[in-house]
């Protein structure tokens, strides 16, 4: 820690800007760290062997919180949130409370034998799907997320499209999420979205609502890789140098509270992984 502190002081990083909370509108819940994938960039370090899972008592408390004044959105994440045995119950309860539901989906979960009806369930309940697809080329996706993941992701996307997701005038939103392969910033979103649309439509007949580009947080698995490659300090300097003040208006922690599988509260799921409480 002392060595890292000295290294960062030598970079002359700018002071972190002051930000304050606005009105709460989103309750994000991490239902557990179990996942059918183990991606190299995962800030949760999720995987098939993780056993952490939200208990029934915490699920019940979470559903009670759906009545929070001003709340508009429930954002379900993991791991693969769909692997929680009460995932569908949570979706139904949130929709019954008049809330928008977001499912942070890895796409391949839609192809698991016990989830063959998942796409239809999500569509029937108007769930917004936010799906990770870090590239539209198979070799890049498989390198980051595991062998064969790209092909299974395409299968999942086709299931969603067949249910109306990403199709005009259905109201079923399908957002794809891009993140860089290594210690770099994502390219401009508008041009990249155009490339995604053209390639996925031409090569596979796949459509989607929008593309979200995210910058990898230097924590957990990604941080381990950066330090292994001697790129950690340079990456932090890159993030500080390229900071855009206008982005502070949309920082998630200003209107969101993150709940972990134990029921503890955080400003966002990144702080959750760092153990920094609300």
Descriptive account of the structure:
The longest helix is centred in the last third of the chain and has 16 residues, at 189-204. It contains ten helices and eight strands. The relative contact order is 0.16. The chain starts with a helix and ends with a helix. It has helices at 2-10, 56-64, 87-96, 118-124, 138-145, 149-162, 189-204, 220-228, 232-241, 269-274, and strands at residues 26-30, 73-77, 100-105, 128-132, 174-178, 210-213, 256-259, 265-266. Helix 2 (56-64) links the parallel strand 1 (26-30) and strand 2 (73-77). The chain is α/β, with parallel strands linked by helices and 278 residues long. It has an eight-stranded mixed beta sheet.
Strand order of the largest sheet: 6-5-4-3-2-1-7-8
- CA(first)-CA(last) distance: 23 Å
Secondary structure: number of strands: 8
The amount of beta strand, in percent, is 5-15%
Oligomeric category: single chain
Secondary-structure class: alpha/beta
Q: Specify the helix fraction band.
A: 25-40%
Gyration radius, in Å:
19 Å
Low-pLDDT regions? 1-7
Shape: globular
The overall pLDDT, averaged over residues, is 88
Helix and strand sequence? HEHEHEHEHHEHEHHEEH
Query: How large is the count of helical segments?
Result: 10
State the major sheet: 8 strands, mixed
